[in-house]
Design goal:
heterodimer; A: about 120 residues; mainly beta; Immunoglobulin-like; seven-stranded mixed sheet; 10 strands; B: about 260 residues; alpha/beta; Rossmann fold; five-stranded parallel sheet; 5 strands; elongated; disordered N terminus
Chain lengths: ~120, ~260
């Protein structure tokens, strides 16, 4: 089992702000050789999906149980946003390698720490 | 409706990430055979020496089936190469070369093979056959060069089953609209889902939106193997070491070293 505990609640961040927290794990697969923590953004919506890992860190030989503090500096862009056709979301994912169940925690990155809404307002259409 | 929901739903409209008909969710639907099951079809494909067509109309699940076949073959230890020709016909010679560069034991999984010119398709079938490579390709129409492995198709019952999986809590309310969309698109499930995506955006009931729905069932998984870490990753790694050292919690209980 893997858990990601973020220090900031709710996990909303402004560009440049530090994303800190603790990664903990137990009962990893026996053949797990490393544990990778990835900061990435991805899109979701009506069209094709896109994804980019902007930073990652690997723990070699994590052992069956453990915990590790982490810190990422949140990038300046792209902001989290949501509209009719597409949403862009940020996430932190812990991935046991070479295989096993990963864990995703969603974040929000925005100019004021909020997701940008790009839906048209009522009455504007 | 709580504040969180209010911030997610403006004017009763659904943000893309909460739309149950978003591609992240529709892509995760498993392929259903109209006849027989995976075991039967896998045996048939082995009998064809992994050379056959997935043939069916638009939106009937050809690509979904190809992707799921890819997953199964890899899990079984087979070497596969999943690819798709570009629309640009100038690139087809390069596409063919890339296919033929694959090792002999490779099973080529070609999506939208009919993008290829007849000449390139003929050469692909012939040359991969001579090299004893597997070749499974999706097409809309039968080709005499390869036997049909699976004919895909849809039924209203299948469509409804898939729709209920996507929109479990509101399926009944949407039933007439959904089935009418399926009929209007003449059985093209992909087109029906795209239309229903828009309808859902306009007519969703905010209280029924479940932020956990997309998150829990369709976790976005980054690729298992990442390219070599760039500067951003190295900076992040050093940041982890710094915080770990400051907090004194740098080493896991198992003695794992700090990144």
């Amino acid at each position: 089992m893997i858990a990601i505990q973020l220090d900031q609640k709710p996990p909303h961040y402004a560009p440049g702000e530090e994303i800190t927290g603790e990664l903990s794990w137990s009962e990893l697969p026996v053949d797990c050789t490393s544990l990778e923590l990835r900061l990435f953004w991805y899109t979701n919506g009506k069209g094709d999906r896109d994804l980019e890992v902007v930073a990652s860190c690997r723990l070699e030989r994590p052992g069956p149980i453990g915990r590790q503090r982490f810190a990422f500096s949140s990038p300046g862009a792209p902001y989290s946003f949501s509209g009719k056709l597409i949403s862009l979301s940020w996430g932190l994912e812990a991935v046991p390698l070479p295989g096993g169940d990963s864990l995703l925690v969603e974040l929000v990155l925005g100019p004021s720490g909020e997701e940008v809404q790009i839906s048209r307002q009522q009455g504007a259409d | 409706m709580n504040d969180d929901r209010q911030s997610q739903v403006r004017n009763g409209r659904c943000p893309a990430r909460l739309n149950p008909l978003a591609v992240a969710r529709t892509d995760n639907l498993t392929f259903r055979f109209l006849l027989h099951n995976w075991e039967t079809h896998c045996q048939a494909l082995q009998g064809l020496r992994f050379r056959g067509l997935i043939c069916g109309p638009h939106g009937s699940g050809k690509t979904t089936l190809l992707d799921q076949l890819h997953t199964r073959l890899r899990a079984a230890g087979r070497i596969c190469w999943r690819t798709r020709p570009q629309l640009d016909r100038q690139s087809h010679a390069g596409f063919l070369d890339a296919c033929l560069d694959q090792p002999a034991e490779t099973i080529l999984l070609v999506d939208s093979a009919e993008q290829l010119s007849r000449w390139h398709w003929w050469r692909l079938v012939r040359e991969t056959g001579r090299r004893k490579q597997g070749l499974v390709a999706t097409v809309h129409r039968f080709s005499p060069l390869l036997p049909v492995w699976v004919r895909t198709g849809t039924t209203p019952e299948l469509f409804w089953e898939l729709f209920c999986e996507l929109v479990p809590d509101e399926a009944e309310r949407w039933q007439p609209v959904a089935l009418e969309s399926y009929q209007r698109h003449r059985g093209n499930i992909r087109a029906a889902f795209r239309e229903l995506y828009d309808r859902y955006w306009l007519e969703c009931e905010p209280d029924k939106l479940d932020p956990a729905l997309n998150r829990g069932r369709d976790r976005v998984l980054t690729p298992k193997r990442l390219p070599v870490a760039g500067a951003g990753a190295r900076a992040a790694a050093s940041a982890i070491g710094r915080v770990a050292a400051q907090s004194g919690a740098g080493r896991g209980e198992s003695g794992a070293r700090v990144c």
